[in-house]
Amino acid sequence: MVQTCQDCVMSNPPPLPTKDRLIRAAAELFRSRGYNGVGVSEVLSRAKAPKGSLYHHFPNGKSDLALAASTWASDGMLRLIAASFEPAECFDDGVVTLCHKLAKFFDSKDMWGGCPITSTLFEGPATEDFRAHARYLVDGWIAEVEHHARRLGVPANQAAATAEHLYMLVQGGWQLAKARQQSDVLRHLPAQLNTDRRQ
Amino acid sequence: MVQTCQDCVMSNPPPLPTKDRLIRAAAELFRSRGYNGVGVSEVLSRAKAPKGSLYHHFPNGKSDLALAASTWASDGMLRLIAASFEPAECFDDGVVTLCHKLAKFFDSKDMWGGCPITSTLFEGPATEDFRAHARYLVDGWIAEVEHHARRLGVPANQAAATAEHLYMLVQGGWQLAKARQQSDVLRHLPAQLNTDRRQ
């Protein structure tokens, strides 16, 4: 009987399938330079994927890849929202955790990347597919925050507006943090949201 | 004596100099598709400018043009801020006017354009020149709003934070308006800022 060593498997995880590598490489590149700033050959090279693989997995090429990459990146944001609000004892605590996690992410990257949805879908070709998908993903983030707001006691008639306000503050705050190259802009966001909801 | 007809001059204004035509064409194109989505030849064609004129007026080519185009577009935003707050009787009225003007602008365009600063400078090459210029322009907008906030009676210790909050709401609100293709998102921004300042 062949013995498997769990530690070895953990330290040497099997390589991701080509399709996943393409999606992750594209998401990172689009986020940092926008849809129009990235060529297909660059995605293939970063993903260490053979040339024919792109159209095999994404028949419409770059635009299909952009839809998949933005969905993958958006799922990461949904997990960040869940990880911030699920252990929180109140909504305000969840907002503080989320903003601190975002600030940490901002510091860990090149501080010049953008929102994975807007960089990928807003700067790309203005097709109905891109527009509809952008709306679907943005509304998904807001719905997830609204769900936690209700669960954590924000009055039902304020939950949606609060979630939208947080979305706008995070988007605008990220732009200001980038312009000033200061992640503290993100850490200070909760105060602006909280005073608003304490009416 | 040759008579000049003022009406004729008004309806047939002299053409803009080449440099100004290049700047305006670049600003519009960068705003709608991002720095990386626009080629130099497209700017020349839209500006109806001869090929050699770009490097004559902008020795470093596209990147120089981006700095000039974002400054020109930013000046337009500064005029919009002034036109909103100068006739206002209180700061809140100025915010309402500004948000309504932005919503009107959003409706009058293709509803898919971006912020002239972030589309031009954040998506471009991540050089120090671009970063420093983005910060300079963004801080200019915030300083202009802060000036009017103080003039219109917002307490001195709240004026800067209020101006930053409005900047973030407008940036984030524009993204949400784009995602939903609804300019009303912008018209509803004042409520969120105002309740915040009434603490």
Describe the protein in words.
The structure is a homodimer of 199-residue chains. Chain A is mostly helical and 199 residues long. Chain A has a domain at 68-197: Tetracycline Repressor, domain 2. Chain A has eleven helices and no strands. Chain A has helices at 6-11, 18-33, 40-47, 53-57, 62-85, 91-108, 116-122, 128-151, 156-180, 184-187, 189-197. Chain A is elongated and about 50 Å long. Chain A binds chain B through residues 33-37, 110, 112, 114-115, 117-119, 122-123, 126, 131, 134-135, 138-139, 161, 164-165, 167-173, 175-176, 178-181, 189, 192, 195-196, 198-199, and chain B through 33-38, 110, 112, 114-115, 117-119, 122-123, 126, 131, 134-135, 138-139, 161, 164-165, 167-173, 175-176, 178-181, 189, 192, 195-196, 198-199.
Q: What is the overall shape of chain A?
A: elongated
Oligomer, anyone?
A: homodimer
Mean residue pLDDT of chain A: 88
* Architecture (CATH level 2) name of the domain at 68-197 in chain A: Orthogonal Bundle
Q: Biggest interface between protein chains, with counts per chain? A: A-B, 42 and 43 residues
Provide the CATH top-level class of the domain at 68-197 in chain A.
Mainly Alpha
Give the ordered list of helices and strands of chain A. HHHHHHHHHHH
Q: Uncertain runs of chain A with pLDDT below 50, 5 residues or more?
A: none
User: The biggest beta sheet of chain A, please?
Assistant: none
Alpha-carbon distance between the termini of chain A? 68 Å
CATH topology of the domain at 68-197 in chain A: Tetracycline Repressor, domain 2
